[in-house]
Amino acid sequence: MKPAIKENPFNQSAIWLYIVAFVFYATNHMLIIALPFLSQSLGAGRSEIGIIMGAYMFVSMFLRPVAGAVVDRFGTRNIFMIALVLNVIVLISYTAENLWAFAIMRALQGAILAFFSMTIHLLVMDLLSDKVRGQGLSLLSLASMLPYTFVPALVLFLKNQVSMTELLLLFAGLGFCNIFLGGRLFRSLSNNTGKQEKKEMEPVSIEAKAKAGRALIFPSLVMLLASIIFCIAPTYMPLYLESQGLSTAPLYFLTETGVLIFIRFFGRKYIPSSDSFPKGLLVALVICFTLSPALLALSLSTPVLLIAAVCNGMALSLLYPTLMTYISFVVPEKVRGYSIGWFIAAADFGTSSGAFLMGWLADAFTYRGMFVAAVGIGVFTLVLTFWHKGQKAVSS
């Protein structure tokens, strides 16, 4: 690929990658909304639904480092297409409408997600220059989260208009469309990244993995702690506001989502794209996600609620792409996928364990006590960020 093209985060190949990511995550999020209804109609109880839905993220979380190592070993392009094809097979299999099949398919989709998310992160790094890598990762994150803004309402509308079988066939159709979109991208990648693929197939040494592990400790810990705090809003905010007789949850989420989309797009140029430790930006973002629960612990008035939503939206929009960009520069290139896998797994673990931890704190104390605990986690993260001196890129 010509150097001038790689300087543009909106070059043709990058745009196709953003579109593929958008369709993939839209389809998967549609299933997250629709499958509990279908499972319930087949006689599943709450615990069975929980097992079916939880298998997806549980398997994905544990397979991410494995997926990263496999992609490092065999290259991104082929695994990218294999993931898209397997995704369609799994989507078609849901039409069997059997609870055991649902559980197995969700676990398989979790495995597919681990490999797909790994390939798209590495592909966007290959398609763009180092200078605009941060912008590309921010745009990729934006494409991945956009479905979460409209898919729930769309699925809830469609489930009253068509049968569940027809809805599942629609999901499979979207999967087929993504194979077409991914195939077009695959052909362009075949012309541009052949040499890179050969390089990626070199075996990885234990020493390279050890160096990557040391470089990963701080960013992964920050992302894990931040994810614990980030899970509070979607999991407990509606319940807390309702318990106080307030109906302002939609306003909170609308504001947070608006800020997230705006900053991920327009703020992407401010993400440092080098191996320099972005301490100033990280401190600001940690302050934002610490301030949000602090404000909610003090007051639930509409102005305070909106300020908390803005703070959380700002942190959500930039923290992940900033840390991901930093990691991509400081770890050895031969283990970049393996390293990113551990980083994303840390974020997943923070989200899943955070929901349990914060729920336990809310039961043991109060919702306000839960927010105070979140502030404590944020302050601890801030101290860690001030203390950390950063790390330059390590050689392979």
UniProtKB/TrEMBL annotation:
Its main location: membrane. Residues 13-393 form the Major facilitator superfamily (MFS) profile domain. It comes from the Bacteria. GO terms for molecular function: transmembrane transporter activity. It is found in: Cell membrane. Keywords: Membrane, Transmembrane, Transmembrane helix, Transport. Pfam families: MFS_1. It is a multi-pass membrane protein. The chain crosses the membrane at residues 15-37, 49-67, 79-96, 102-124, 136-155, 167-186, 215-237, 249-267, 279-298, 304-327, 339-361, 367-387. GO terms for cellular component: plasma membrane. This is MFS transporter. It comes from Paenibacillus chitinolyticus.
